[in-house]
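Below is how a single chain appears once it has passed through the pipeline. First comes the sequence as given, then the structure the pipeline wrote out for it. We keep one example in the README because the format questions we get most often are answered faster by looking than by reading.
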Amino acid sequence: METSGCAASRPRAFGEECRDGAGHWDRIGAGDSEAILRPRDIYAGLANRPWPYLRHEQGEVLDEWFDRRRDDRDVVIKQNTGGGKTAVGLLIAQSTLNEGIGKAVYLAPDKYLVRQVREEAAKLSIATTDDPQDPAFLAAQAVLVTNYYKLINGKSVFGVVGDGREPIDLGIVVVDDAHAALATTEDQFRLRVPASHKAYQELLDLFAEDLQHQSANAWAELQDKDPTALAPIPFWAWADKRARVMEIVHPHRFHDDFKFAWPLIAEVLHLCTATATTKAVEIRPSCPPIDRIPSFVRARRRVYLTATLSDDSALVTDLDAEPALVARPVTPGSAADLGDRMILAPVALNSELDPEAVRLLARQFANGDRDGDGIAEDKPVNVVVLVPSEKAAKAWENHADRTYRVGDLAVGVKELQAGHVGMVVLVNKYDGVDLPADACRLLILDGIPRPLDAVERREAAALADSSVRLAREVQRIEQGMGRGVRDSEDYCAVLLLGANLGVAIHEPRHLSLFSPATQAQLKLSSDIARQIKGEGLNSVRQALRACLGRSPQWTERSRRALAEVRYAPHGTVRPEAVALREAFDLAATGRTTAAADRLQRTANDLDDQALRGWLQEQKAAYLHMTDPVAAQQVLTRALDENQFVLKPAGGVEPTQVKAAAVQAREAAQFLAAEYGDGVNLVLGVKALLEEVVWGDEDRADDAERAWERLGRHLGFVSTRPEKLYGTGPDNLWALSVARQAVIELKTGCVTDTIAKKDADQLGGSIRWLNKNNPEVKALPVMVHPSRVCEAKATPQPGMRVVTPAKYELLKQAVVQYAVALASDLGRWGDEQAVAAQLAHHKLTGDRFFDTYSEAARTST
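Resulting structure:
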């Protein structure tokens, strides 16, 4: 590979020039002077500086690192998006080379960004290469710029423990976009045994009895090839049968599906979590054993560059960074180095605003029609829409000029940076994209990425309301919002579509997790939102015009909002993250009892009940290695804290669900505890209703959880027996003392009839209720795209189906219920007010399914 700069060039005759034209003139007057060490001075010494001076914020960060922190092994550097982090990281790498500390590696998220970093380095006259075998890199004369995958994989050219190669000794590793590095690291330490591989069926056969005992429904879904199936293999079965697992997997270690992950997890296979889906058996440790990559672990300096990592805990769990050092980030003195952003969530302004109308508004701005009269009176702008999935992208098909995926992203970004394109949709890419200046003037987030791998899906269900999940969600949102503003002089308007994003910028728990500068911009934007609350899109249009038209009234307030903002002086490192890392390291060296004790000490101090239960499950997994009986006792207690942990080997006896004495009273108490103001009430209700997505198999678990919470919002005692006991229906609503709705959700189906297996499943759930609570009458309910059963399927007597059409009516009614209570002076905690609205919208137990479902019928 070619090395940029002159550091690694071949010998030249005097006067001969290398590519940057320096020749041997750079040696004239140099004498025996020492190499420049201070990064700020390295920049000042450049003959052709790309900018007259470093930005003030860059200088502050570089001086703080050099004067006080450069001897620290782990350093987190936080700067707002567009604050010049790349130049900071490159200058720190060059300083380390000049100091003679050792070889320097700069890690970027992908090949596209590797090119960007090298282009930046060329402007700084810093020699780089993208080849780990380049003599200039090996001689510590050039910075190796590469992606995370090159360093962290089971065949790493840097060396892996046990591969017989001498690891490459490193002086410094600069990790750019640290949040992206964390996702990559977790993925690299995950072994997927695909369903197409013979080992997949062998593993299913090995654990068949264990999976059936854990969840009969999940096992049946696996057998039926249901794409929503998710079946965790119990830790005791995995540990006890580890020798057989090794026999099944080890012979395939050189297979393409195994070779990059196997060397990283083989030694801790017994400590891994294994989960079966219809696509693969996924195997991953609770913390990546990053010590398998000695080059990274032994690097004398590790610098993490981040803009959006307000919660730094994952640096500890994933990369084994020192918690005390991570908690002391290096930041500029001021956080005002962020460009100008107006951030609005239309649904939070007016719950009746139509998403399609917002899409049309965005199209008009792309055309230069800012007043919506069909005539382009202003300069057309680039509108960039970030969506989490192909399904979400379809909603923009009629408006978008381009749709780009990760594979063709480089072409799309270059096109945007070159000039006006119009409206561009980017699918599932919320980080690592630079869209400065006119490349993006209106940025739209239409949803946020969902957990995709099996372990993340299970964790999302178990920790749905936990601060851990909230922090990850806010991080993804902030990553996305940062795409359109790349320096302090840049500006961009941001629209957040959907109630979930509306909640994120309004609900206090979410707000507190954003960076200080973003919080300041959200506060200013909320002031505007209050002025136009309840109005239509024209008011949104006027607000956007003020931002994009650089109205002095807006720009002055925007600058003032950021003027006194400071970075948080301490990073967030959650105690459970430290405990998980330390416990895993203890267990990996055979000290599993000490690992269990370490988790218990932290669990004792946690207020988050769901998280306590989650930690107890991990504790039980370690304890099983020495005391299986005690492990099962711990797991049983964990169920009291978190109902979504693994079921103990002895099973769980179903408890009878009893209806609330008074539905309206139950609803009022729930709503009063859940919502502090009317806006949050309406947004929260809309958000949970949006979680039911038709035709998307990946959202099935979201739909089940939303349906359970919907029941609680309406005052029904609502549970998820299949999750709780491994058998029974997806949802169970106690409609009255004498009647309960047995509900199976099939929102991911795309068939135009109800399949026999689905009808049979509902029948099995009816029998489950009859056995466990014979005193109540079961109402069979299915949430399905069709009310028609296929010819071979027999509908249950009295079976009702919530179809998409009926669900739309239900959504309207529930939103109106919430709006009425929110606008009635906070009376959502008043039993009489709630009772009146429940009755008016036919949401009472005796009328709900008669109104919002249809009778099932057989195919003719």
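The chain has a mean pLDDT of 89.

See the next section for the split statistics.
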